């Protein structure tokens, strides 16, 4: 796993990134455009076991020519790390070994709320909101990194 500053230096200027919103059962995936300007919801994976999950993520990684992975870290609102955060950190460590060392953690506090609010603004019905919440949360997480990336490179 890398520090954000090292991550930014290592990824190519023209490359895609993948955002992951890790959950106990559902894993949201988003990908960026090659200019790293816009994050787009991609899919939601249902976690069966780690080997199935890593093969699904690896396929998306290869098929979309992804250069780096951003994993949301569900830090508690008071800044402490609970069981969900530790689970996300473990996932990041494993993916950095199994797929790419270009893997970082990103504070995802309020990402689900932000994604839900965004879908409210777009007048999406409630059943579609719930269905797409994980990938929209991944989009929200990844967009945070993309915005940070562009602030660092301007």
Write the layout of secondary structure elements.
Elements: H1 4-10, E1 16-21, E2 26-32, E3 39-46, H2 50-63, E4 66-73, H3 83-98, E5 103-107, H4 111-121, H5 126-152
Parallel strand pairs: 1-4, 4-5
Antiparallel strand pairs: 1-2, 2-3
Helix pairs in contact: 4-5
The level-1 CATH class: Alpha Beta
Shape: globular
Return the domain count. 1
Q: What count of helical segments does DSSP give?
A: 5
CATH architecture field: 2-Layer Sandwich
Helix-strand pattern: HEEEHEHEHH
| Averaged pLDDT | 88
Q: State the end-to-end CA separation.
A: 25 Å
**Which strand order does the major sheet show?**
3-2-1-4-5
Helix content: 40-55%
Describe this structure in words.
With 154 residues, the protein is of the alpha/beta class. It has one domain (4-152): YqgF/RNase H-like domain (Nucleotidyltransferase, domain 5, 2-Layer Sandwich). Helix content is 49%, strand content 22%. It is built from 5 helices and 5 strands; from the N terminus they run αβββαβαβαα. The chain has helices spanning 4-10, 50-63, 83-98, 111-121, 126-152, and strands spanning 16-21, 26-32, 39-46, 66-73, 103-107. A 5-stranded mixed β-sheet has the order 3-2-1-4-5, with helices on both faces. Helix 4 packs across helix 5 (126-152). It starts with a helix and ends with a helix. Mean pLDDT is 88; it is low at 111-117.
């Amino acid at each position: 796993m890398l520090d954000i500053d090292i991550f930014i230096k290592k990824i190519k200027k023209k490359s895609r990134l993948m955002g992951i919103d890790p959950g106990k059962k559902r894993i949201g995936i988003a990908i960026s455009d090659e200019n790293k300007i816009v994050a787009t919801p991609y899919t939601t994976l249902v976690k069966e076991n780690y080997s199935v999950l890593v093969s699904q993520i690896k396929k998306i990684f290869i098929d979309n020519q992804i250069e780096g992975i951003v994993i949301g870290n569900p830090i508690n609102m008071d800044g402490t790390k609970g069981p969900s955060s530790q689970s996300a950190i473990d996932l990041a460590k494993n993916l950095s070994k199994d797929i790419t060392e270009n893997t970082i953690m990103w504070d995802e506090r309020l990402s689900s709320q932000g994604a839900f609010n965004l879908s409210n603004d777009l007048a999406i019905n409630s059943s579609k909101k719930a269905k797409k919440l994980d990938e929209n949360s991944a989009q929200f997480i990844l967009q945070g990194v993309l915005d940070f990336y562009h602030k660092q490179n301007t």
